[in-house]
Amino acid sequence: MATVPVPRQTTGSDGRDLKQVPRTRxxxxxxxxxxxxxxxxxxxxxxxxxxxLEQQGRALLQRVGLPESYLGFAMVLxxxxxxxxxxxxxxxxxxxxLLPQCARPSQGCPAECDELGLRCEECxxxxxxxxxVEAEKLxxxxxxxxxxxxxxxxxxxxxxxxxxxxxxxxxLEKAVEKLLLAGVPAYAIPLHTGNCKDSSFxxxxxxxxxxxxxxxxxxxxxxxxPLLRATDRMFERDLAVLLAHGCxxxxxxxxxxxxxxxxxxAFDFLGRGGKRLRPFIMLAAYDALxxxxxxxxxxxxxxxxxxxxxRVALAIEAFHKASLVHDxxxxxxxxxxxxxxxxxxxxxxxxxxVGDYLLGLGYRLVGRERQxxxxxxxxxxxxxxxxxxxxxxxxxxxxxxxxDDRDQQLRPIDALSIYALKTAPAFDAxxxxxxxxxxxxxxxxxxxxxxxxxxxxxxxxxxxLDDWSGDARNxxxxxxxxxxxxxxxxxxxxLEAASAAQREELxxxxxxxxxxxxxxxxxxxxxxxxxxxxxxxxxxRKYRDRARAVAADVxxxxxxxxxxxxxxxxxxxxxxxxxxDTAGPSLPTVVA
Length: 592
Fold this sequence. Notes:
The protein is mainly alpha-helical. It folds into three domains: 25-210, no CATH class; 222-287 and 298-373, Farnesyl Diphosphate Synthase (Orthogonal Bundle); 396-592, Farnesyl Diphosphate Synthase (Orthogonal Bundle), CATH 1.10.600.10. It has 27 helices and eight strands. It has helices at 25-39, 50-64, 71-88, 127-138, 149-156, 169-174, 177-181, 203-210, 225-236, 239-243, 257-270, 277-289, 307-331, 342-346, 348-367, 370-373, 375-404, 412-422, 424-438, 445-466, 480-484, 489-497, 500-511, 517-529, 532-552, 557-570, 572-577, and strands at 95-99, 112-114, 117-119, 141-144, 162-167, 186-190, 335-336, 339-340. Strands 4-1-5-6 form a four-stranded parallel sheet, with helices on both faces. Strands 2-3 form a two-stranded antiparallel sheet. The longest helix is centred in the middle third of the chain and has 30 residues, at 375-404. The chain is globular, with a radius of gyration of 24 Å.
């Protein structure tokens, strides 16, 4: 479980690993004490940013005379020290203890696993069961699992308010920093190794924090958790109520299965899975221009929004889900959110119709709020949404045109132009809608446009990189972009840097009627030979830094912090995967 993000790079300037854990107890205690002393001097009204946390970690290591190879460890301990006091004020029955499966014996463990993790019973073979029993007696919710999906779901759904976790630094790196930077009190205890076998940790550290309970000192850190939960409630609990405002089945459709079929499929897909980033961004932008009442010292559940505002946020997600349905058809994808895509289940015609219904639903949700929000506000929001819809379609159309004409050249500038059209408009529409619902927003246009362009392009580059992990957008197939032969930045970089023979092989892959796993292997080999993965990571970092620079000049303060939060969380993978190279590629003119 992660309590803080890990460094923006995984290796130092000399190639050393930055995620090492000190081998000796004495060194670990020195770092822990230095982290506590550092945090005592900090302003804790807001969570530290990634940049601040890294700066503090480097300064800490210099003070205690340790190399930068311990930077990840130092940052984790700084984050734990930052949240320790507020974690201690959370009632035991609102805390989650996350224990690692890899701390059990590699041989002879009798416990079985299910969807909630290890079903651990006290047997004396390892410390895990003992801590589980002890924590449950105090009132903790306990999960024994490697990774964070369960913990994150429990936090956002409101089942728990703070996390005490034991994990290796690799798990910390892969965790969703969004919640932790968002203001979730969390305390992490790193495993001594990351080999996922017979792991150990400082058990007395866990025992100390496990039973720690103190009244709050009055320090409250700004938190986006109330807004994250408000967004989650819209889809998990309040969806039917929000859609009932003139959007549910009409007339005899309510009693006619065939007439209600499209609506049922659309509502099911709307409420299904996903990060729900865009409606969150809309609600958070609206809150920011109102002074941040939902984030400024609020308890985790104090985010109250008018239904009219929430319906606009719902519309933002409806547009996004419609684009996913159509995108899955155009890319002929098999899986979405871990389930077969709609066109695989119901056919292309039905899936197209569901996507169209979601588009109409989004416009209807906004249009019917003109009395509550004002006709001028609704008109402005609808115009921005329509513009985003057109730009997205143009971007997708450019991608399809390239795939239909395999003789076209693909330069990095071409791929980035498509990215700017396909990804940035949705973030732009979400931000603008939140700002416009709170008041006049035209003067924010230049900053919003630049910010969303940089964020959107960086986000899409990371999506390309994720495609090679086998779980990009929950599609669960490594190299899917190669199999579908999409015009990605990785392909453009490879075509630019490849030898004549490699370029000819790539062009043959592009021209082929069908591709299989062997094509993915060949493409990966060429990409690695041409170092396109490193090049893409560096470019993603440059776009992230440009977005951060735009955010730094925005007023008011609450909006400036929101944009910084979006950069740090949405583009967290760029930070985690970045390989330092100050020379790097320059920013193409399309987004400069």
